[in-house]
Design a protein that fits this description.
alpha+beta; single chain; six-stranded mixed sheet
């Protein structure tokens, strides 16, 4: 019985977290903030990035400093942000290193919803950090916006994050 419960929990964790391996590719990140990329350079090594969709209740979203959507009509806003059929999300992350002082790193994450090759103006957030939700470093916080939303973590000593997993969360309000 105990073994069955452990197997079920393992499967649920695997389904809940989507781990993908990403190559840091500066050509793929050509729409990064140019002030950021002038001093920071992408990692050229393979890394694992855990990506998870976490939709946020509207009451919590309103408390975020970057949340600016006016939710006058709750029903209309839910309809506008509801999952659309036939769409996909482009979500990823990479590590950037300080070009001046190589001893520091930043997590960079992005997300955007697409219909085919068309980027939609879905209001959503992106959040990135190293570690776990309860023990993280360089947390960007939730960055809200439309289109492709970029989140830049804070500067962290590379020695502290070398063996930590980068995480990218994204979602809308519920």
């Amino acid at each position: 019985m105990n073994r069955i419960v452990k197997n079920i929990i393992s499967v649920l964790l695997i389904l809940n977290l989507v781990a993908v391996t990403v190559f840091a590719d500066s050509a793929a990140n050509n729409d990064l903030d140019m002030d950021f990329t002038s001093n920071w350079y992408p990692s050229m090594t393979k890394q694992t990035v855990v990506i998870q969709r976490v939709d946020v209740p509207a009451a919590i979203a309103r408390a975020d400093i970057t949340f600016s959507l006016v939710l006058d009509d709750e029903a209309a806003s839910k309809k506008g942000m509801a999952a659309k059929t036939g769409t996909t999300w482009d979500v990823g992350g990479t590590v950037y290193y300080d070009g001046v002082d190589k001893y520091y790193s930043k997590a960079v994450g992005w997300s955007g919803e697409y219909s085919g090759t068309t980027l939609l103006s879905t209001y959503h957030y992106t959040r990135t950090f190293f570690g776990t939700v309860t023990n993280n470093l360089g947390d960007s916080g939730r960055v809200w916006g439309t289109g492709k939303v970029w989140a830049y973590g804070s500067k962290v000593p590379t020695s502290q994050v070398t063996y930590m997993t980068q995480r990218v969360y994204y979602g809308t309000t519920v």
